[in-house]
Design brief:
single chain; alpha/beta; Rossmann fold
Amino acid sequence: SKKIYVAIDESVHSVAALNFTLNNMARPSDIITVIMITDSEAEREVKIAHAKTLIRALADPNHTDKFFAVRVLCSERAGEAICKLVDETQPDILVLGSSGKSHLESFFLGSVSQYCIQNANCPLVVAR
């Protein structure tokens, strides 16, 4: 079995990344960990509930409880938090949604996807 991490937020690009993972990459024996970032400890439960709602909406109901986990990290720097988790836990692959920003916006503002592409120490897929 593979350890697959899918980093999501509330964007449609994140939903596409989770959907892509479920439909194209994951096998029943794989462990999928949905990762969300919050900058406030008070939002942790809200993020967990959001992730579980997405999983229920997209996953095969026969497998939902068998191979999913949810991790919510508290950080103001999502890319750094994701890459640190990857370093510590060594997943087989990390899946992200595209940032949805234009090239110019990404250049000036940066993006979590771009940061992870440059810094994550595991194979990475950016899904659209």
